[in-house]
Amino acid sequence: MPHSSKPKSNASPSTFPEYSWKLIHPNARLEYYQKPQDCDQALAKLPPGDYGFDMEWKPTFVKGGKENPVALIQIASADFILLIQISAMKELPPRLKYFCESPDFIKTGVGIQYDSKKLFMDTGLSLYNVIDLSLIARSVDNERWKGQYKLPLGLARLTEAYHSQTLPKGKTSRSNWETVLNDQQMSYAANDAHCAFTVLQVLRQKLDLMEKKPNPRCFTFNCVRGELLHVPPLAPLPWGPENPDYDPGTSLLHPDHRSNLLFQIPQTTPVEIQVLPLMDIHHPQYLDKEIIREHIIGNGLAAVVMVAPTVEVADKSVAMAIVLIVKNSPRTTTVIVTRVVLDPMTLTESVKALAMPTVSSLSPTPAMN
Q1: Pairing of strands 311-313, 333-335
Q2: Does residue 85 register a pLDDT over 90?
């Protein structure tokens, strides 16, 4: 499986080739199931081991609307990619329950803590032996990844780091996953799950080379009836993302780091500022994997960062900041965000400062913990 130990220093994300499971494992079989009995036969063929695990559901476009249930479950390895459309089934395949709840099958993905809880809420399925891809990346490649241990790393970012490829997102992620899937949807869903699997294999290679290996409990958990619990021998104690040997460095999100930072935006770059009301931060659309999910609340504002495809961000893990949505532009824009909470008046003044051709400095109010 081709990969690079470090991303190309002279390449921006837009210059990376697109990730495709067909190029990495051309002999893998992509299978799409809408009937439980057919799905059971396929699941029965899966051997124990690592599997990329992902889910999709129909987005909710109504403000404050209830999140739709899981429509599609993706399971991927080097040999198989199964797309299981449970929204088309009257009952769940028995082998799907076995796969999810057997510790012999290791499930991995980004944002999988939330996904595992949602899976139980929507289907009643628990998920055993789960590896959070962000946490294992921070644990085995701490030199590369800094910032709070629990902060998620997007799958697209991990793909760039370990494959020097870009993972296409676009509008497909927000399409209707309850209808018969088209080729574009199947390709998107297959790549997401397969990429989680291949990134895990790269990280396992790094883990094998470590002299002092992290405890698997730092990134592995069970989700039993919607609760995150330790795997044996600490089961059934509650689990949380912790690694005592992890070095957060001097990231913008380090709890002790309070220095002012700079916003550096070229005058020609179009910038749109959006302030999210407090209630909106919990809306399902802000839990999309393209959006960093950490937030902090103060002065009636919720702060979250959304990164456009052509934007290079000094630390993409930044999540506690002003809401900045940078539109696509032929020019690359560098955005450096700080851990601040601004009231509407200060935000207005900040927008004016961003339009200045020179670099401007913002004075943050104290951050809330």
Answers
A1: parallel
A2: yes
